[in-house]
Amino acid sequence: MKYLVYIIILLLLIRCKKQEIGPQCPSCVTSIKSVSKTVLIGCEGNFGWGNASISLYDSEKKTVQQNLYQNVNGTVLGDVLQSFHLFQGKLYAVLNNSGKITILDTTDFTYQGEISGMTSPRYMLGLSTSKAYVTDLYSNDIYIVNPATQSIIGGIATNHWTEQIYQFDGPDKVYVCVMDTNWVFVIDPVSDVITDTIFVAKSPSGIVQDAQNKLWILCTGGISQELAKLYRFNITNQLIEQVFTFSNLSDSPNNLRINKSGTELYFLNGGFQSMATDAPSLPSGNVINSNSALFYGMNVNQSTADIYITDAIDYVQPGLVYRFDSLFNPLDTIQTGIIPQAIWFK
Amino acid sequence: MNLALKYCFILFATFFKSYRTLFFLLFIGSITFVSAQSDTLPEFEKSVTIQTPNTTFKIQTIDSVRIERLQGKSIGELLNQQTSIFIKSYGMGGISSLSIRGGGASHTQVFWNGILINSPTLGQADLSLLPVDFVDEVAIHSGSSSTIDGSGGIGGSVQLNSKAQAQTFFEFTKELGSYGIDKLSLKANIHKQRLTSKTVVFKNTASNDFSYQDYAEIGKPLVKRDNASTFSYGFAQDLHIDYDRIHFATQFSFVDFDRNIPVAIGVVSQMQNQQDQSIKMLISIDNKSYKNKITTKLGWINDVLRYENKSTGLLSTVKTATIVAQLQNKMVLKNDWFWRNQINQYNISAQSSGFPEGKTQNRTALFSELLKKIKKFDFSISLREELIDFNATPLIPTLGVKYRLVKGHHFYFNATQNYHFPTLNDLYWSPGGNPSLLPEQALQTEVGYGFKTKSKLEFKATVFYSQTQNWILWSPTINGYWSPQNIKTVAKKGVELNTSKKWKFAPRKFVSLFINYQYVKAINLESYINNEETIGKDLIYTPRQILNISVMMDIHRWSFYYQQTLTSRFYIDRANTTYMPYSAPANVKLDYRFAEQNVILKVGIGMYNIFDEAYQLVANQPLPGRYFGLTLKMKFKE
């Protein structure tokens, strides 16, 4: 029996040192090469799995490199990469279910710090060297953060899920979609006070500004709760000028974008749809059909007018991004990480 | 071999395609036959039990001796250490579900003393909720053999049985260990002539604040697992009364499990908590005669799950209640025929945030099995028909053949067409529930060879193949929510090897060795999702190889237990680009036993994950490195 005791003591001295700990993706491990025309594709990853990632696409050479952040910085990015925001030369990656914003250098993508301590951040809007707003799904506040000190310095009570945030080019006002209501908050960024509320349809999800300095507000209508609507809002007289109502309860338009000249609206509604800002009615169909793909995110490169549409497929495998030119001709299909969503053009 | 299995299967499926009518005739005939027979049975003879013929199926059992070595653990930990079943575990006290032969968690049906305990909403059983202390025997019915228990076990089924012991004793067990492990168990077994009572009480706590490397932080610091503590307690009472030829039993168990849920590496702490309360009650009456046994069971299962996320304010409660009635008879007929019939009635009610108004489901199952011995062959043929809300579902036929070669050596073949029906969540969850879902349809075959020698060497080798159509997956929709669809066809093939050997050198000097190995390749054959990347790829969370070795050694007053599991890498995305690396955790336990007349005192030290391996079975959910437990056990016998 004493031999058994010796064996156990010996076992205590043995330690297993593994090279591989946690999820491994051999095809994603590369030394990142610099690219000429940078497009970053933010992949959410699965909620709660901690597998968010960034794919780096060279739009000139049509090449893609996966797991950019991990390959550059040696650590995993976090959970649910919701959005990117470029502010004062740094790229802010909002990691929804990591409760933080990771700050990256826009040239070599090295880690520059982070703003942590949030509950479920969604979108960021930089206002000044020392002030930015961050909307949040669950915190019931819009966080006021200081990008310089990388810390939270205050909050604006909203008691609701705040989503897309937009600063109008003219009068100094910030517009915030309040996703679980039918409101758009108007905030004075100097006093950090909600000064007005625009009443729209259920679940406003996106705001853009057109060439006529009108705001366009897209409401999804909730999950088949009411008809989706698109609003044109005049900020001068603070009145809704026109309402476009989608015809089916199953319509769930999202990802509202606008072209560089501010004359053509784009959004996803199953497929990709396009609508002139002076159109009398909603588009009758898709200009790009999804063909059973799951169109999930979309953005327009303002310098080339190329359209990028993400396909999350089934959420449990690497996704795809389809690239089209301004006339909706296909240019490329890009392999990405899991659940591609946010797209940023350098 | 695979091709041969496929052909056998096609023949089998064709043969049974339109035989539902035959089944009803057989079943009605059997009930009539039983009532006609009961008057003509011979006088009751003492000490007779109905002799069930050798089963044609592969059944793997874990007896009470092996179960006792893992006292204080959960059923999930027991299966992980004693079988080659893959247990998807979130860690000590965390949620754990199992996968048999590459099936999903809901493809394994778990039975407690013969009644199904899978959640009617999720379709799966959380094995971390069931303590080993409540169970005296575990039987694993892989593949086809699960149809003798019920439908839906596309992977297999697990039987958890508590049994009366014909002795009187009181047992006290206390374990203290690393990371706040504090376990207490009291067991009282009283046996007086016709009456046996077993009472078990347990209380377990653990802080689970072990250290791990946080590779989502710059510098990859060592940090402590946060919000992972667990607290559980429970009570079980069995009462068995034998009167004449009648055996009456009541079985009751209550478990309250309060656990904090830690987040994956890279996820912000969310202060999640889950509280499960489970009550199970069963009354059963066995009426045995020389050639006939009738069992009547009446059960009630009540489960409540409360989930809270303190960071987001999310609260969710799921309540399910099931009333079960079961009538079964086993008959020995002339000329080596054996006949078993069963009627099961499940009345299910459930309420959750997905269907706050509540849902009910009525499930009736009729089962009939004939076994016949012809020279060296044992044949088994069974039919199962389920009525869900009084609507007929496809018939489940099963065929088994066993050939006894020479003494102890045998071959076996089984085939079935099994169905797994959608869960209440699949059908009714709002938004997304899909009432038009088809059941998952699985064609399963297996062939095997086994032997058992006088020198207590047992070996079984099984080759299996199955194909499941209409596999249900929740997938995203353009409306922004998820919905279940019959997405794909999956093929699973593999090999299982099970060996055990016992060496006895002297009365209290023996060694037992158990080796279980599983190779399974479970791949997507086709998918309705518009992407070819997953075709031919492995299912996620399905390791191809699992090897499990355990050695038990008793030398006079010393007991030694070594257990090693090797799990090969497995993929966590459907295109198979990302995998979890292999893991090889091992555990040892050393006990010293003092015996003085009717008192036995056992002191033990356990060392778990002895090589201090950093590993995960769920992506980014770290498991503890090396940790220890000290056990004190006192047993007072009459």
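qc> The first strand of chain A starts at residue 38 and ends at 43.
qc> done
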